[in-house]
Amino acid sequence: MPVTKPHLATAEAERAAAPLAVVALPEIEAAAAHIAGRVVRTPLVTSPALSRLCGQPVHLKLETRQPIGAFKLRGAMNAVLALSDEQHRRGLVTASTGNHGRAVAYTARELGLAATICMSALVPSNKVEAIRALGAQVRIVGRSQDDAQAEVEWLVAEHGLIQIPPFDQPDVVAGQGTIGLELVEDLPDLSCVLIPLSGGGLAAGIAVAVKALRPSARIVGISMERGAAMAAAIAAGRPVDVVEEETLADSLGGGIGLANQVTFALCRDLIDEVVLLSEAEIAAGIRHAALVENEVVEGAGAVGIAALLAGKVSLHGPAALIVSGRNIDEAMHRRIVSGAAA
Ligand SMILES: *Cc1c(COP(=O)(O)O)cnc(C)c1O
């Protein structure tokens, strides 16, 4: 059985303070067994329109069908199930206000655990309410994401809460990688996977699974032109700071962490090609998803569709696009679909 292991250049490996955590096919298969029945095994549906456009069969992996509307449930659920009973009793904490925050809140509720989501006073009330509705405790602190993260670290240090990271953790990556197993099962002649790329947990997990089972399949990571942290890190050969900018693909914003342990090396080694998209291209992806595919898709979830519409990826066989999430502000969705925005 082929097992993909990340490799570091020797000098780099010597400099690394902690040993690089390895995620390979066995960890992803174990994750699939653990989360089975607790997350949705999502459908892979054919897009006749995109297939016609590209001259190859194009399929959409609808992670929008997860109960929280995004794939992040897979990684969070797997990471929380891997904790001990004693850790479960301490409760979960994270600073994410987006899909990862929803995933942690949902997971806690399903497993009967306590969850605290820290957020700044500047987070819009609809996001606060979405997390509260899932039964999590919301803690409003400070006026920035950094303030919220500092609160998380204080709760971990002083009260022993367990932080669930959004991407840079082996159990999270293995959970996201279960998508790759399902893709190969549903589409045995898979030749290319288009994956939204931010912190790289989704891309790393899927790439490990797909490259292990279908070594010739191409992995394409897709980000926005505005503040693509993993693309900048791969280009620089190490994690770098990027300026965060507003984008329609808001779930793809944020850095990968300068002390990145897991996802940077995996993405650097396993992603064949990174594609960057303009805001107008992302808007066209959201619009196509709504009007042609009949799917409400948020900006981050529409980048695979957008990349094909923009002619930025050429296909040479059956392809799968990860439609990663559907959580977009309703009014903004209406504006984009009507053609009024971007
Ligand atoms: C988090 C997220 C991504 C990116 O996942 P990473 O593991 O951070 O690369 C893509 N799409 C949606 C909808 C997300 O919530």
UniProtKB/TrEMBL annotation:
Keyword terms of this UniProt record: Lyase, Pyridoxal phosphate
Source taxonomy: Bacteria, Pseudomonadati, Pseudomonadota, Alphaproteobacteria, Hyphomicrobiales
GO molecular function: L-serine ammonia-lyase activity; threonine deaminase activity
Name under which the protein is recorded: L-threonine ammonia-lyase
UniProt GO BP: isoleucine biosynthetic process; L-serine catabolic process; L-threonine catabolic process
Cofactor(s) it depends on: pyridoxal 5'-phosphate
Domain called Tryptophan synthase beta chain-like PALP: residue spans: 39-324
Family label: Belongs to the serine/threonine dehydratase family.
CDD domains: Thr-dehyd
